[in-house]
């Protein structure tokens, strides 16, 4: 079933218009100490042959194709049981992750301890780049590094429900760090009722804005599938996270769901807005019961059947399989957004073999849907077939 909602809320402009360049493939990132080490010669040669053979594809898809090539390379290296054996799903070889309580951004050669309330004096707040009901985000400078300065909106300081949500969202990010699948925390300050977080800046904006940008419109079908793969990995991580199986109650319609994710400078897709992230475990009868927000903000077509309202104020409880339903809708949206007629036929051909699988993702019975991990694996397999990797 193709999700056909028109994305009228998408921003028409690009957050970043600079050309995207394919990064070098000669090194991969060391998982233990963050050092670069040479890729084995035979692997590097094979990968370079693939890159050369499909140059016409890569020049249009840039890093999105490259990251799918990296996913393929790592899948082959670690074996087919990778997702079952590695709950962190870390397959970004160039991710600059640090230990818990430390961070590293572009231009830094080593990890630095999280910033504290005392360090806020060294941060120069510049322009406001985004805001929501409870918090606002500023571009800021810390010791010559461009960062994001996130704070509770001053006018919400005495509104306890909103104040609590903002702090909970920051606390969830802190608990989930470090991970390539969530926004990197650089520091935070909880003073009294105020909440402030310093995080990595996402120059490409949120996923909603990105898929409406000119950069995205130029991506070919494999580049778009690379975006979907990265998004699916985030869902797989959240359903197997260090703080348990989590679902995001704020994903009530397509535009709002896409806005929960950011696109980072190194082209990762990361979960960012985690104000309402309940723990679910069907075996222990722990299910989500999302009650926050206006009823009119909920799209019954986008949401899974078990999540839809049967009473205006009491939603049905549900588990992570509702996310899988939404992921299928988001897949169609990402693949077909801002697509030209000349590209649509190629996307149709790429999506045709996935039709039955995505149909399973939207089975009426949640138990019949695949897991988010299985979605990742299926998408990567389709990518490999489409690029003639087999």
UniProtKB/TrEMBL annotation:
Sequence ranges assigned to domain Protein kinase in this UniProt record: 123-390
Broad class of enzyme this protein falls into: transferase
Compartment list: Endoplasmic reticulum membrane
Protein's membrane topology: Single-pass type II membrane protein
Main location: endoplasmic reticulum
Keywords assigned: ATP-binding, Endoplasmic reticulum, Kinase, Membrane, Nucleotide-binding, Signal-anchor, Transferase, Transmembrane, Transmembrane helix
Origin: domain of life: Eukaryota
Cross-referenced Pfam families: PK_Tyr_Ser-Thr (PF07714)
Signal sequence, start to end: none
EC number: 2.7.1.183
Entry keyword annotation includes Membrane: yes
PROSITE patterns: PROTEIN_KINASE_DOM
Entry keyword Glycosyltransferase: no
Reactions the enzyme catalyzes: 3-O-[beta-D-GalNAc-(1->3)-beta-D-GlcNAc-(1->4)-alpha-D-Man]-L-Thr-[protein] + ATP = 3-O-[beta-D-GalNAc-(1->3)-beta-D-GlcNAc-(1->4)-(O-6-P-alpha-D-Man)]-Thr-[protein] + ADP + H(+)
Purpose: Protein O-mannose kinase that specifically mediates phosphorylation at the 6-position of an O-mannose of the trisaccharide (N-acetylgalactosamine (GalNAc)-beta-1,3-N-acetylglucosamine (GlcNAc)-beta-1,4-mannose) to generate phosphorylated O-mannosyl trisaccharide (N-acetylgalactosamine-beta-1,3-N-acetylglucosamine-beta-1,4-(phosphate-6-)mannose). Phosphorylated O-mannosyl trisaccharide is a carbohydrate structure present in alpha-dystroglycan (DAG1), which is required for binding laminin G-like domain-containing extracellular proteins with high affinity.
Name by which UniProt lists this protein: Protein O-mannose kinase
Organism in which the protein naturally occurs: Oikopleura dioica (Tunicate)
Lineage of origin: Eukaryota, Metazoa, Chordata, Tunicata, Appendicularia
């Amino acid at each position: 079933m193709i999700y056909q909602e028109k994305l009228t809320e998408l921003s028409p402009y690009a957050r970043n218009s600079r050309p995207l360049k394919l990064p070098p493939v000669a090194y991969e990132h060391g998982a233990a100490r963050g050092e670069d080490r040479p890729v084995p010669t035979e692997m590097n040669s094979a990968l370079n042959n693939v890159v050369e053979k499909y140059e016409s594809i890569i020049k249009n898809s840039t890093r999105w194709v490259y990251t799918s090539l990296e996913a393929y390379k790592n899948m082959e290296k670690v074996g087919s049981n990778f997702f079952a054996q590695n709950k962190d799903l870390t397959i970004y070889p160039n991710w600059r992750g640090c230990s818990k309580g430390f961070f590293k951004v572009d231009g830094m050669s080593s990890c630095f301890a999280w910033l504290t309330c005392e360090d806020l004096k060294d941060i120069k707040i510049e322009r406001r780049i985004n805001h929501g009901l409870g918090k606002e985000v500023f571009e800021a400078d810390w010791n010559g590094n461009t960062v994001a300065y996130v704070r509770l909106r001053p006018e919400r300081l005495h509104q306890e429900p909103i104040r609590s949500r903002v702090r909970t969202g920051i606390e969830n990010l802190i608990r989930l760090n470090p991970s390539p699948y969530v926004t990197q925390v650089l520091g935070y300050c909880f003073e009294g009722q105020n909440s402030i977080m310093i995080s990595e800046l996402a120059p490409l904006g949120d996923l909603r804005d990105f898929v409406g940008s000119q950069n995205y419109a130029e991506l070919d079908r494999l580049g778009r599938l690379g975006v979907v793969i990265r998004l699916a990995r985030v869902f797989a991580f959240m359903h197997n996270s260090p703080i348990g199986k989590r679902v995001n109650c704020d994903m009530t319609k397509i535009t709002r769901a896409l806005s929960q994710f950011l696109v980072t400078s190194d082209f990762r897709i990361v979960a960012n807005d985690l104000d309402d992230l309940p723990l679910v475990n069907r075996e222990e009868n722990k299910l989500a019961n999302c009650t926050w927000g206006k009823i009119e903000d909920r799209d019954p077509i986008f949401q899974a059947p078990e999540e839809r309202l049967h009473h205006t104020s009491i939603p049905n409880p549900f588990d992570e399989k509702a996310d899988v339903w939404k992921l299928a809708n988001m897949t169609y949206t990402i693949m077909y957004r801002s697509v030209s007629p000349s590209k649509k036929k190629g996307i149709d051909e790429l999506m045709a073999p996935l039709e039955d699988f995505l149909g399973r993702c939207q089975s009426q019975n949640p138990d019949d849907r695949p897991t988010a991990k299985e979605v990742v694996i299926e998408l990567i397999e389709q990518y490999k077939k489409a690029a003639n990797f087999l």
